[in-house]
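Hi X.,

You mentioned you wanted examples for the new student's onboarding notes, showing what a folding record looks like when two proteins sit in one file. Here is a clean example. The first protein comes first, with its sequence line followed by its structure tokens.
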Amino acid sequence: MDKVLYDRIVNYAKDIEFGKPVPRFAKPWQQDGLETARQIYEYIKFGGEQTAKEIAEAFEVSPEYAKQVILALQNGGAKIQAVAEDSGKQHRHAHKYFVAKS
């Protein structure tokens, strides 16, 4: 993900969180990126706790891209929280993301 798209997701995170329409941009990839961010947010909100891998598989993106979208949404103020989950591999923790209740 490039910085321009990341910044756009941060700037519109609250609009995404509250279901407001996101603005149209001249570059289709920016619009697609914001729509993907909205879909990921809604997937987490309505699907319960999800790992980045589960989110990535649902949207056919890489787990790293899913993590970047989640981070951008969090930095923009969307109430997405993470909880560590023991993955059993070398005591590493995967994170499950969920939308905090207001």
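Then the second protein repeats the pattern, sequence line and then tokens:
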Amino acid sequence: MTRDSLLRSTDVPVLILNFNGWDDTFANIAAMQPYLSNLWLVDNGSDHDRTAEARARFPSIRTLRLPRNGGWAAGYNQALSVVAREGHDAAYLLNNDAVAAPGAVESAVAALRADKDCAAVGSIILTHGGRRLSFDGEYFYFKSERERASLAFSRAVRPARVLHGAGLALSMTAFAKLGPFPEEYFLYWEEADWFIAARRRGWTLLVDGSSVVMHTGEASNSAHNSRYYRTRNRFLALQRGIAVSGAEESLISLVAEELVRCSRGDAEGQKATRQGLIDGLLGRFGKRRPPWRPLVLTPIILSLKLLVRWHQLQARLRAANRGRGPFPGLPERALNFATRSAQILRRRRRDLGLAKYSR
């Protein structure tokens, strides 16, 4: 079966996960007219149930109402279990604040079906009013259409390291063999964890240049949830042996980097980063808990800063004295001083010993 015929025969469910974002969800469903007959609205335990209103406004869509908000992974895992039971070979996952361009779903699914070893195919994600392009875990900003064109790549399908969770086609065969998305993250990094695990087990990931999704932003970012979960979940990824950034990280380097971020942005954002840092170190994963009191948080942050400074100083001393004899950790000037002092002391002890012996 050719890719062109696959493009014309796509009938996979398009899953939209919603939590307390009804207005954005309804607006984006209205913009998804070509996909309404295959669209599943999955409500992830919102405070107010408006699924009946959704069915009234869009009679052809299917709705699923989950009893509680278990996070991005838990919501999609439950919906995907229904997709699997009904025998679908693939599903397309789409953020509730994102709109797939015409042909985006069909193109991604066709690329997925054309490669039996492919676990998922990601779309190109445009954010910030089309000024930022995201794919393969990287972001590119552009100020003009000309600059955007210079950064754009061909519409070909290419291999990827990770995919953006705002829009992707997922193989149900891979989902069955690899298992569900890890739910401990609650929000952010869970799809990166799953994708990296998939690649380790021999599956491929692809990004489709012909499949474009416009993402309006982080609609779930109330109370700086984005900063909190992105900070905290890096520690969970490190614990699980997943390098979400693509580079190996140590605990101390991760703490040092997040301490720098604690001083950036507005006061509430800094507070969310500090809470994420402490919760990550203490292993408080899952849904975000009430914030720490300042009397508890402030001394912990100060202690971490001292610890990081001490480790950085030790690293500089080791680097300065690498391969320089019996005084590890000392820079060259201190090493020379220590060596001369030791020689002087040995001579004086010898001289004093001879004098004492002669009496």
